[in-house]
Amino acid sequence: MAAPIMSIRCTVQVTRLLCVRLRNSVDLSRTGNRSVHSSTLRCAGQDWRVRRGFARSGSEYGPLTDLPDWSFADGRPAPPWKGQIRRKEEREALARRVVLLSTEMDQGMTNWHKKQQEMKAEQLQKEISKLKSKASPNKTTNT
């Protein structure tokens, strides 16, 4: 029983020693390290993911984010988490908005085509009902 207590004491001491060394090495005021900056971070591989049509990061969407982390022993899936439910609702709302806007666009295009056809028919009707000159086009007038 003495061995586990000794190992706990050793791990606590090692942890304290590592924390002190880490704190000393990370302290920027002492080292003056210029490689640390405060600009926005870019995830590794972000450009690669975007070029191939994936999410910018692995935690935005995809099987690792959307599918459950575990399942029951009999094969039932785990209940969805709050974040999964929220993301699903956001996607459904976005899909509804896309459908609404696309139907509005289709209706607008059909109305525009109808107006164009009506304008052409009206222009043609004006050309037909225009007064014609009595002079024949072959005769020339002497002036």
UniProtKB/TrEMBL annotation:
Which InterPro entries does UniProt cross-reference here?
Ribosomal_mL52
One GO cellular component this record assigns the protein to is: mitochondrial large ribosomal subunit
Predominant location category: mitochondrion
Identify the domain of life: Eukaryota
Q: What's a BP term from Gene Ontology annotated to this protein?
A: translation
Alphabetized, the UniProt keywords read:
Mitochondrion, Ribonucleoprotein, Ribosomal protein, Transit peptide
| Biased amino acid composition, Basic and acidic residues | 115-130
Please verify whether the record's keywords include Mitochondrion: yes
Q: A single GO molecular function, which one?
A: structural constituent of ribosome
Entry's localization field = Mitochondrion
Record region (Disordered): 58-84, 109-143
Give the matching Pfam families: MRPL52
What family classification does the UniProt entry report for this protein?
Belongs to the mitochondrion-specific ribosomal protein mL52 family.
- The protein's name is Large ribosomal subunit protein mL52
Task: Write down the species.
Answer: Xenopus laevis (African clawed frog)
| Name of encoding gene | mrpl52.S
